[in-house]
């Protein structure tokens, strides 16, 4: 068995241990999922306006707000930036 195969098997064992609640050497990265609806409402924007202003597809925004989907890590970071600096993000997008 080559190194790649050994590493793959080891990784699968660690993933299985983690899934079973055992301590494992695996790293866990937790991404805070922002409350998209709260961010939008705090800015007093409709879904349509928020989506257009921040260049988020409207169906994606609706899916996030209705809990059918969750923002991935980059989208979550973008939403956090919007919540903290909405005017700066809006201005940056207008000049881009």
UniProtKB/TrEMBL annotation:
This is Helix-turn-helix domain-containing protein. Gene3D superfamilies: lambda repressor-like DNA-binding domains (1.10.260.40). Keywords: DNA-binding, Transcription, Transcription regulation. NCBIfam families: NadS. Signal peptide: none annotated. PANTHER family: ANTITOXIN MQSA (PTHR36511:SF4), MERR FAMILY BACTERIAL REGULATORY PROTEIN (PTHR36511). Residues 36-73 form the HTH cro/C1-type domain. The keyword Transcription applies. PROSITE patterns: HTH_CROC1 (PS50943). InterPro entries: Cro/C1-type_HTH, HTH-type_reg/antitoxin, Lambda_DNA-bd_dom_sf, NadS-like. One of its GO terms (molecular function) is DNA binding.
């Amino acid at each position: 068995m080559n190194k790649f195969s050994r590493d793959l098997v080891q990784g699968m064992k660690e993933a299985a241990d983690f899934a079973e609640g055992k301590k494992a050497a695996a790293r866990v990265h937790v991404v805070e999922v922002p409350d998209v609806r709260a961010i939008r409402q705090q800015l007093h924007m409709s879904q349509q306006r928020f989506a257009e202003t921040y260049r988020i597809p409207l169906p994606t925004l609706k899916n996030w707000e209705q809990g059918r989907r969750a923002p991935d890590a980059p989208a979550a970071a973008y939403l956090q930036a919007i919540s903290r600096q909405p005017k700066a993000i809006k201005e940056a997008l207008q000049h881009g």
